[in-house]
C-alpha cells in the first residue's frame, strides 16, 4: 500500500499545476520542494513579493501568485524545505528535511525539477566575481537586491529580461556582451512561425531590447573569444566584437547561455533520454502526457525539454490528469485541448532556439579551460583521457574524476558529452551521459546513519510538513 | 584483427587485464572479450584496498606475490595507479576480538609470515588519532595500501594492449565449445574466436560459462555498496576495517574525500547489468563509520555506488584449471577482495597456462571443491 497516490518533486509551475489536477481528481498527492515557498525558480518568492518588486519583475512573474494560491488550497500535501536525495525504482522516495532523512512510497512520480543554467566554460569563468545571470535574478526575486554594475555576457532571452529588470530596479547593467552571431538572425527568421503567442513573445523581447537601448546601456553584439582576466578576482573582460578587441574593467560578470533540463532524477531512474540537437541537451523521452520510458514516472516542465513557464504549467496539468485518468477518476479538463494550447505556446521555440543556440566557444572549450569546477579539470585533460582510450563519459569520470565532486556532474556533464562526441566523431546520444547515483544532493552522513530503514507513515510525514 | 590466439580471456576486469598482460610478457598471443567495457563492474568501482591483512590462509602466498608486483606497479604499467602505501588495520572493540587477532598473528608467524601485527590502544591511537576512544586495539599490516581501481584496471589494459593483446569490448560471449584441440568462442552477433586456452574471468557472471564447460561454479551476483564524502581536512592515514559486527572499510583519499564501504549490499540484477543502491542497508555502513570515527558526523555524502561482484559460498576465489575441460581455466569469484590479488593472479595464471604449473600454491582455490 503506497502512502501517496502521486508524489511530485518541485513546486514550480509544472509541479503546482500537476498537484492541483491530481488533488482535484481525488488522488492523495504530495509535493516536495527545496525552497521555503512555492514558485520554483521562475516564480521564486512570488507570494512574499511586495508591489515594488512585482513592478520590477513584471506581469509574467506576478502571474505566479494566482497559481501558488490555487496550489495552496488544492488539498495536496506540501513539504517545503525538503530535498529529495534518492528515489528507488519501486518509487520509494527519500528526502531530507530539517536534518532528518525520511522515506515514503508513491504510486506515481511526477518529476517537475525544471531547468538548470547551462554551464559556460570559458577562460576565467571560475574567478571570484563571475556568476550566472540566473543566480543574479534569484537574488533579485528573493531579496530584492541586484548586483552593482554587472556586465551581462552570453546569449538568451534571460539576458535581456534581466537587463530590463535591473533597469526597472534603477540598477542598470554596466554593459551587455551578446554572443549571438549575426548570421543567426537569418537562420532564426527562417524558423519563425507566427501566432498570437509567438507575436506576444516577440513583442516582449523587442520591448526589453528597447528598454536597454533607452537606458543607454552599451551593447556589444556578435562577441567572440571571451575571456575574463584577473589575479584574485575578475578584473577585465576581454572579447572581440564589431571588428575590434575590447577590454572592459569589471566588478561582476554574469554569464548566461540558456537553460537545460535537470536530468538528475530521470537519469537516476534510468529513464530513456535522447539528445535534442536544437536545444543542445539531453531530455527524457516522453509520451504525449509526459510519461517516461519507465511506467509511472512522468516529467512535467522544463525537465522534459525547455518550453518556459506557461508550457510547464500545461504539462503539469496533463501529467496530473493522466495519472487521475489511469486511476479511473473522472477528469475536469480535456487533455487534447491542453495539448493544443501547448502547441500554440511552443510556436516561438524554433526561432528562439536557433537564435539563442549556445556559443561555440563554450560547447568546445579550449584545452586550458576548466570544465569540471569541483575537480578542477580542463577540457584538455578530458581530451587526453579519451585519447588514451577511455570509451565514454563514465570511464572518463572513473579515470580522471569529472562529475565526481559535490555538484555531481551538473556543471560538467553536458560539456563532457560534447567534448567526447566531437573527439570521437559520434553523436551525443551514442556517447550518452554520466550514470547518476544517489544522493541526488549532498546528504549528511549522520542523517543516513540515523535513518530508520523503514518508510514513514503519513502522520509522521505531514507532521514534518507543519514543522 | 586476429580471431585466433593462444589464449582467449572472457571478461574484462582486473584479473583478465592482468592475465592478458602477463601472458603477453610470456609470449602468448591474447584476445580479451568483454561484454561491456573494461572495468565496468567490480574491477572499476571497488574500494581499492591493497590489503594483505586478515586474508584467508589459502590466499596468503598469492597475496604476498601480488604485493611484490604492487611495490613496482608504476614500473610495470607506466602508471602509478594511484597506489599509496598505507597501513591496513582492523579495529577491535573487545578483548575477545583482540585475543583472536593475537592468535592469528602467532599462527602467521609460525607459517613464516610477519606482515601482520597487533596494535594496543596506545599504538592504535598514535597511528590513527581520530578513532573512537572505545576501541582497544587493532590488527595491522603496516606496509599495505590502496589504489584507484578504475585507473589500475585501465592501466593493465593499456599496457597489455601496447604489448599486443587484442581487446574486444561490447561483445558478449554466447557459447564456447571444443573444436579439435582448440576452443571456439561464439559471440552475440555471430563473431567467433578460436583459442588454445580459455580463461573465465567473468566475475558475477562466471557461473554461466562454467555450466557450458560442464561444471559448477556456484557464484552469486552481489552488489556491495560504497559511498564517498566531500573533501575533509586530512585526519586518517590508514585504511580502517570495522570490528566483528560492524562491517566497514574506511579510507581517506589523497584528495581528502573519504570512501566508505564494507559489504552492505544493494540489489543486483546481473541480467540487466545494473544494481540498485538500498539506503536501508547503506545506512548501516554510515552508522559503522560514525561509531569508529565520531569526526564523521558532519561529513556529507556526495555519491554512493555499487558494482556487480561474484561471491562464492566460502568467499574464496575460483582459481586454476577446470575440473572437467582441458585447457580451460578460471580466475573469478573473488568475493569482494580480488583487487589486491589482481596483479598476482595475472602472473600466476599466465605462468600456469604457459608452463603447466605455478610456483604459488592455489590448489585450495580450485573449482574442484565444488564439483
Which geometry of chain B do the CA atoms define? globular
Q: What's the helix count of chain A?
A: 19
Q: Percent of residues of chain B in helical segments?
A: 25-40%
Class by helix and strand content of chain B? alpha+beta
The total of beta strands of chain A comes to 22
Sequence-ordered SSE layout with sheet pairings:
The complex is a heterodimer of chains A (467) and B (371).
Chain A: E1 4-9, H1 13-24, E2 29-32, H2 51-57, H3 59-62, H4 64-72, E3 77-79, E4 82-87, E5 92-97, E6 100-111, E7 115-117, E8 130-132, H5 133-143, E9 150-155, H6 157-168, E10 175-178, H7 183-189, H8 196-214, E11 219-220, E12 224-229, E13 236-241, E14 244-249, E15 252-257, E16 259-261, H9 264-268, E17 273-276, E18 281-284, E19 297-299, H10 309-326, H11 335-345, H12 349-355, H13 360-363, E20 370-372, E21 377-378, H14 379-388, H15 393-400, H16 413-424, H17 428-431, E22 443-444, H18 445-450, H19 458-466
Parallel strand pairs in A: 1-2, 1-6, 2-3, 6-19, 8-15, 9-10, 9-15, 10-11
Antiparallel strand pairs in A: 4-5, 5-6, 7-16, 12-13, 13-14, 17-18, 20-21
Chain B: E1 4-10, H1 14-25, E2 30-34, H2 42-45, E3 49-50, H3 60-70, H4 73-77, E4 84-85, E5 88-92, H5 95-111, E6 116-120, H6 121-127, E7 137-141, E8 145-146, H7 149-162, E9 166-169, E10 173-179, E11 182-187, E12 192-200, H8 206-212, E13 220-229, E14 239-241, E15 249-252, E16 258-261, E17 265-269, E18 274-276, H9 279-292, E19 300-306, E20 309-311, E21 318-321, E22 328-332, H10 342-355
Parallel strand pairs in B: 1-2, 1-12, 2-9, 5-14, 12-22
Antiparallel strand pairs in B: 3-8, 4-8, 5-7, 6-7, 10-11, 11-12, 13-16, 13-17, 13-19, 13-20, 14-15, 15-16, 17-18, 21-22
Helix pairs in contact in B: 1-7, 1-10, 3-10
Amino acid at each position: 500500500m503506497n502512502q501517496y497516490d502521486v508524489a511530485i518533486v518541485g513546486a514550480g509551475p509544472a509541479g503546482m499545476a500537476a498537484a492541483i489536477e491530481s488533488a482535484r481528481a481525488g488522488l492523495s498527492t504530495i509535493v516536495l520542494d527545496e525552497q521555503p515557498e512555492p514558485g520554483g525558480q521562475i516564480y521564486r518568492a512570488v507570494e512574499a513579493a511586495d508591489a515594488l518588486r512585482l513592478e520590477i519583475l513584471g506581469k509574467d512573474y506576478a502571474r505566479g501568485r494566482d497559481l501558488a494560491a490555487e496550489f495552496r488550497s488544492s488539498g495536496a500535501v506540501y513539504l517545503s524545505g525538503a530535498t529529495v536525495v534518492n528515489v528507488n525504482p519501486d518509487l520509494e522516495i527519500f528526502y531530507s528535511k530539517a536534518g532528518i532523512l525520511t522515506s515514503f512510497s508513491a504510486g506515481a512520480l511526477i518529476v517537475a525539477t525544471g531547468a538548470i543554467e547551462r554551464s559556460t566554460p570559458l577562460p576565467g569563468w571560475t574567478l571570484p566575481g563571475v556568476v550566472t545571470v540566473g543566480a543574479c535574478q534569484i537574488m533579485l526575486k528573493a531579496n530584492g537586491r541586484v548586483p552593482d554594475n554587472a556586465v551581462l555576457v552570453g546569449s538568451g532571452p534571460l539576458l535581456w529580461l534581466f537587463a530590463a529588470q535591473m533597469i526597472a530596479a534603477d540598477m542598470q547593467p554596466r554593459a551587455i556582451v551578446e554572443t549571438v552571431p549575426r548570421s543567426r538572425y537569418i537562420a532564426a527568421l527562417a524558423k519563425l512561425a507566427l501566432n498570437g503567442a509567438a507575436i506576444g513573445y516577440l513583442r516582449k523581447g523587442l520591448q526589453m531590447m528597447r528598454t536597454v537601448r533607452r537606458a543607454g546601456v552599451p551593447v556589444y553584439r556578435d562577441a567572440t573569444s571571451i575571456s575574463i582576466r584577473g589575479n584574485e578576482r575578475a578584473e577585465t573582460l576581454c572579447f572581440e566584437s564589431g571588428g575590434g578587441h575590447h577590454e572592459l574593467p569589471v566588478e561582476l560578470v554574469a554569464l548566461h547561455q540558456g537553460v537545460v533540463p535537470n536530468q538528475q532524477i530521470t537519469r537516476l531512474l534510468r529513464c530513456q533520454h535522447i539528445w535534442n540537437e536544437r536545444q543542445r541537451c539531453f531530455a527524457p523521452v516522453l509520451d504525449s502526457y509526459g510519461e517516461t520510458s519507465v511506467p509511472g514516472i512522468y516529467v512535467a516542465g522544463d525537465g522534459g525539454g525547455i518550453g518556459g513557464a506557461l508550457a510547464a504549467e500545461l504539462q503539469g496539468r496533463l501529467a496530473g490528469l493522466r495519472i487521475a485518468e489511469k486511476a479511473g477518476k473522472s477528469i475536469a479538463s480535456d487533455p487534447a485541448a491542453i495539448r493544443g494550447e501547448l502547441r500554440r505556446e511552443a510556436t516561438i521555440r524554433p526561432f528562439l532556439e536557433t537564435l539563442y543556440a549556445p556559443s561555440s566557444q563554450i560547447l568546445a572549450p579550449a584545452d586550458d579551460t576548466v570544465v569540471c569546477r569541483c575537480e578542477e579539470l580542463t577540457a584538455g585533460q578530458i581530451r587526453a583521457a579519451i585519447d588514451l582510450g577511455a570509451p565514454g563519459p563514465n570511464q572518463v569520470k572513473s579515470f580522471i574524476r569529472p562529475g565526481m565532486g559535490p555538484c555531481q556532474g551538473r556543471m560538467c556533464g553536458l560539456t563532457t558529452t560534447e567534448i567526447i562526441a566531437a573527439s570521437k566523431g559520434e553523436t551525443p546520444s551514442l556517447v550518452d551521459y554520466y550514470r547518476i547515483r544517489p544522493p541526488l544532493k549532498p546528504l549528511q552522513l549522520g542523517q543516513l546513519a540515523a535513518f530508520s530503514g523503514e518508510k514513514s507513515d503519513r502522520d509522521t510525514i505531514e507532521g514534518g510538513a507543519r514543522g | 584483427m586476429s580471431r585466433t590466439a593462444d589464449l582467449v580471456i572472457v571478461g574484462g576486469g582486473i584479473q583478465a587485464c592482468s592475465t592478458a598482460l602477463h601472458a603477453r610478457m610470456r609470449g602468448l598471443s591474447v584476445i580479451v572479450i568483454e561484454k561491456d567495457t573494461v572495468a565496468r563492474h567490480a574491477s572499476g568501482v571497488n574500494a581499492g584496498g591493497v590489503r594483505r591483512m586478515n586474508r584467508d590462509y589459502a590466499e596468503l602466498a598469492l597475496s604476498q606475490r601480488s604485493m611484490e608486483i604492487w611495490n613496482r606497479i608504476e614500473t610495470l604499467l607506466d602508471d602509478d595507479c594511484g597506489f599509496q602505501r598505507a597501513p591496513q588495520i582492523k579495529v577491535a572493540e573487545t578483548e575477545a576480538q583482540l585475543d583472536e587477532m593475537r592468535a592469528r598473528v602467532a599462527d602467521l608467524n609460525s607459517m613464516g609470515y610477519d606482515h601482520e601485527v597487533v596494535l594496543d590502544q596506545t599504538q592504535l591511537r598514535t597511528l590513527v588519532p581520530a578513532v573512537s576512544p572505545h576501541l582497544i586495539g587493532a590488527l595491522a599490516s603496516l606496509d599495505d595500501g590502496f589504489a584507484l581501481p578504475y585507473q589500475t584496471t585501465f592501466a593493465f589494459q593499456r599496457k597489455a594492449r601496447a604489448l599486443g593483446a587484442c581487446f574486444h569490448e561490447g561483445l558478449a560471449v554466447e557459447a564456447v565449445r571444443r573444436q579439435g584441440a582448440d576452443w571456439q568462442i561464439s559471440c552475440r552477433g555471430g563473431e567467433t574466436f578460436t583459442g588454445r586456452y580459455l580463461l573465465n574471468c567473468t566475475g558475477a557472471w562466471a557461473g554461466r560459462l562454467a555450466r557450458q564447460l560442464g561444471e559448477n561454479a556456484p557464484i552469486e551476483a552481489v552488489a556491495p555498496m560504497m559511498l564517498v564524502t566531500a573533501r575533509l581536512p586530512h585526519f586518517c592515514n590508514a585504511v580502517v576495517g570495522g570490528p566483528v559486527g560492524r562491517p566497514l572499510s574506511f579510507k581517506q583519499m589523497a584528495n581528502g574525500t573519504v570512501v566508505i564501504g564494507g559489504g552492505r549490499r544493494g540489489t543486483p540484477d546481473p541480467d540487466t547489468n545494473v544494481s540498485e543502491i538500498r539506503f536501508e542497508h547503506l545506512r548501516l555502513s554510515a552508522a559503522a563509520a560514525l561509531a569508529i570515527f565520531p569526526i564523521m558526523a558532519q561529513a556529507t555524502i556526495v555519491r554512493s555506488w555499487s558494482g556487480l561482484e561474484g561471491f562464492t559460498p566460502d568467499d574464496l576465489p575460483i582459481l586454476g584449471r577446470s575440473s572437467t575441460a582441458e585447457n580451460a581455466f578460471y580466475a573469478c569469484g573473488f568475493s569482494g577482495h580480488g583487487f589486491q590479488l589482481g596483479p598476482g593472479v595475472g602472473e600466476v595464471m599466465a605462468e600456469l597456462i604457459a608452463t603447466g604449473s605455478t610456483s604459488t600454491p592455489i590448489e585450495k582455490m580450485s573449482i574442484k571443491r565444488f564439483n
